[in-house]
Design goal:
- The structure holds two protein chains of two kinds.
- Chain A is α+β, with helices and mostly antiparallel strands.
- Helix content of chain A is 46%, strand content 13%.
- In chain A, α4 packs antiparallel against α5, α9 packs across α10 and α9 packs antiparallel against α11.
- Chain A is globular, with a radius of gyration of 22 Å.
- Chain B has twelve helices and nine strands.
- Chain B has a domain of 157 residues: Butyryl-CoA Dehydrogenase, subunit A, domain 3.
- In chain B, 53% of the residues lie in helices and 9% in strands.
- A four-stranded mixed sheet of chain B has the order 1-3-4-7. A three-stranded antiparallel sheet of chain B has the order 2-6-5, with no helix packed on it.
- Chain B starts with 6 loop residues before the first helix and ends with a helix.
- Chain B is globular.
- Classes of the chains: A alpha+beta, B alpha+beta.
- The interface between A and B is large, with 53 and 58 residues.
């Protein structure tokens, strides 16, 4: 049980801190949250900045063009970025977090050369086409079909929850190449250029009014067979291999942001007088303990990944606990706003009470509702914990 | 950073577990239910011989010279084994008190605020040979004092909630006792909170293990009840509570052990190293109290009607968790301590 950082790691921290403090003031103003082309431009500019400084792909292996940093260095990098309030990965998330690592692990040399540098430099943005209207938690039931026609696949079907589809250049897409009932044995992983004829993008509006998600409708979309990553019908394994890139640092930014919001809410409570209510103070205390615990759990998970070379089971435990505490934090924010929490836009008087304007807390509250749904619902995560960690029997099918 | 059990800690864990399984079996412990004295001298001697009470004492002072991080591993095991006695107080007092390090059973009691209406209860009154009184938490300059139990007027509680933790009511006001020089009250309280938390983690873990085994074997509607999501999800949530609390207890122990860690965390948490120590200790016990109480309840629920019977031992863990949760700082007191730091 050791929580000390080495001298090299502390030096790395100082290096990152100095670089961030020099570079962040040079960034352009943040675009409006609804202006997706502007957000893409902002995100790709930041990615380019990282690339030029040698920090792009900090969690990618060196042979994929990344920095190949140790899990602890990744932790430090993310911690410093969050403290400095550096931009988030944003629209770069799928390329850097998923499609890129998949191509590194399973792509051909030609695919690596074609796609990886463009992701690292921020030249190209990816989106994800995994879920379908009929295949959510049960992803292996997906039905979007790809039929071979010479050296092309012809794709028909639809995808859902495709974030940033409108501004993406490529889609990492899972398609059915096997029999209809082949489940995980009949899926292939394809690179689909988003400007291919036959792709219709229909934005979905979230309960927060955001259009970050879209549905994709695929009508005779032709993609070269050369765009397949891994063997035909081996796409399920290809997808799972990518998960082994995770080093327990996936939520570091979110967690530290939550801890910062909690500090802001504490200030807000003190300013509004609600701090005088012991029940409010104790809710803040409980959340403080929970987030501190999650920070400790993160370090356990990072250490486990460093030791094993692959992520352990702690990530699921983290996700479950973080999601619920994150929602409790958002609820606290809205409670502290009292009637001002009814306005999703800035209102006079409420926007200057704390360092977080009322509109941001309301937006966070709405977004928080998705914490227990996105990236695997909490119910599915509990099944995973029960079956894979506790060893309870599977549910009869 | 390697925030996992080291090989030595794993060996320590296995060693204590096998010692308890061999010398202090649950079956034997249960023969003491309801007794005025539930601690068998042979059990205490076995733990003393294994170095449990001098674990945290430096080698140059004749101790085992291990850290609080090692201490939490041992405390988890003692609680998993449901071992009765003033174990954690004696362990926590080892550094600073040669008698404790030598294996004298010593109780730690909290000086109540002068206006407290709650009676003062002493655990294991027939086992403890000495008592250390911690100054009231609000008394920053207060010193620890030592009392001879024979100077107290005690009356045994007829039915303690935990049948393995006998209690006596201390009549009248506490005698002054003798001030103990060189025993840092703040450090003692902080490491005690962490050891109590670690014990709760042991309870949170073992109750889930018992419930999981039961859920695998118990069949209803033609299949193991553990295959039903309703049961699975209860237990998955319980596991999450254990691991969150364990992470917090480990981190608190390492932070108390190491000034560099406290200083680094002070940077992350935007407070001073001194505040960090209180914060991690209080937070760890809070999460661990919650985990132990909720998991023991969950385990009883999974056992159904059998869980409500005296025979199934889970109620003993629940009752022990209640004792630990009410020791040194209750949930409310921990929350108030934390909120005073933020």
């Amino acid at each position: 049980m050791d929580l000390r950082y080495t001298e090299e790691e502390e030096a790395f921290r100082l290096e990152i801190r100095a670089w961030l403090s020099a570079v962040l003031p040079t960034l352009p103003a943040k675009p409006a949250s609804t202006d997706w082309p502007a957000r893409r431009a902002y995100d790709t500019h930041w990615q380019r900045t990282l690339y030029e400084a040698g920090y792009a792909g900090i969690d990618w292996p060196v042979d994929g063009g990344g920095r190949g940093s140790s899990p602890v260095e990744q932790l430090i990098f993310k911690e410093e970025c969050e403290f400095a309030e550096a931009p988030y990965i944003g629209t770069g998330f799928v390329g850097l977090g998923h499609a890129g690592p998949t191509i590194i692990a399973e792509g051909t040399q030609a695919q690596k050369e074609r796609y990886l540098p463009a992701i690292l430099k921020g030249d190209e943005i990816w989106c994800q086409g995994f879920s379908e209207p009929g295949s959510g938690s049960d992803l292996a039931s997906l039905r979007t079909k790809a039929v071979r026609d010479g050296d092309e696949y012809i794709i028909n079907g639809s995808k859902i929850w495709t974030s940033h589809a409108e501004v993406a250049d490529y889609c990492e897409m899972l398609v059915r190449t096997g029999d209809d009932d082949s489940r995980h044995r009949g899926i292939s992983w394809l690179i689909v250029p988003m400007d291919t004829p036959g792709i219709e993008i229909r934005p979905l509006t979230t309960i927060g009014g955001s259009t970050e998600f879209a549905e994709l409708f695929l009508d005779d979309v032709r993609v070269p067979v050369a765009n397949r990553v891994g063997d035909e019908n081996d796409g399920w394994r290809v997808t799972m291999v990518t998960l082994s890139f995770e080093r327990g640092t996936g939520f570091v930014g979110d967690l530290l942001e939550s801890m910062r919001i909690l500090r802001s809410l504490t200030e807000l409570a003190k300013r509004t007088g609600l701090w005088g209510d012991p029940s409010i103070r104790r809710r803040i205390a409980s959340l403080t303990a929970a987030f501190d615990g999650l920070w400790a759990l993160t370090k356990r998970n990072v250490s486990e990944a460093a030791r094993l070379g692959v992520p352990g089971v702690g990530g699921v435990v983290f996700k479950l606990s973080y999601s619920e505490n994150g929602q409790a934090l958002c609820d606290l924010g809205l409670d502290l706003l009292e009637r001002s929490g009814l306005a999703a836009s800035s209102i006079a008087g409420a926007d200057s009470l704390g360092d977080l304007p009322n509109a941001e807390l309301v937006e966070a509250w709405i977004k928080g509702i998705s914490l227990t749904i996105a990236a695997g619902t909490s119910q599915i995560q509990r099944n995973i914990v029960a079956e894979r960690v506790l060893g309870l029997p599977k549910e009869p099918k | 950073m390697d925030f996992q059990l080291s090989d030595d800690q794993r060996a320590l864990q296995e060693g204590i577990r096998s010692l308890i399984n061999g010398a202090i079996s649950l079956e034997e412990i249960r023969t003491k239910e309801g007794a005025d004295d539930t601690v068998e001298q042979a059990w205490w001697d076995a733990l003393n011989d294994a170095g449990v009470f001098s674990l945290l004492v430096a080698e140059q002072d004749g101790g085992v010279g291990l850290s609080l991080a090692d201490g939490v591993v041992v405390a988890e095991e003692l609680a998993r084994g449901l071992v009765p006695g003033p174990l954690l107080s004696t362990m926590a007092l080892g550094p600073g008190l040669a008698d404790a390090a030598g294996g004298m059973p010593i109780a730690l009691i909290d000086q109540q605020s002068p206006n407290s209406a709650v009676p003062l209860l002493l655990e294991h009154p027939q086992t403890v040979k000495s008592i250390v009184v911690l100054p009231h938490m609000g008394d920053a300059a207060g010193q620890c004092r030592r009392l001879d139990p024979s100077t107290l007027t005690l009356s045994m509680v007829d039915e303690p909630l935990d049948p393995l933790t006998p209690l006596a009511v201390v009549q009248g006001t506490l005698p002054e006792g003798e001030a103990i020089d060189g025993l840092d009250a703040v450090g003692l309280r902080q490491r005690s909170l962490v050891l109590l938390g670690a014990a709760q983690v042991g309870i949170a873990e073992v109750t889930v293990e018992l419930a999981v085994e039961y859920a695998k074997g118990r069949e209803q509607f033609g299949r193991p009840i553990g295959s039903f999501q309703a049961v699975k999800h209860l237990l998955a949530d319980a596991l999450c509570r254990t691991e969150l609390a364990r992470s917090a207890c480990w981190a608190a122990a390492v932070t108390l052990d190491n000034n560099d860690v406290a200083t680094r965390e002070a940077d992350t948490l935007s407070c001073s190293p001194g505040e960090v120590r209180w914060r991690v200790a209080a937070g760890a016990k809070m999460l661990a109290d919650d985990a132990a109480l909720a998991n023991a309840r969950t385990a009883i629920q999974v056992y159904g009607g059998m869980g409500f019977t005296w025979e199934v031992p889970i109620h003993l863990y629940l009752k022990r968790a209640r004792v630990l949760a009410q020791t040194l700082a209750t949930r409310t007191q921990l929350a108030d301590l934390l909120s005073a730091l933020i």
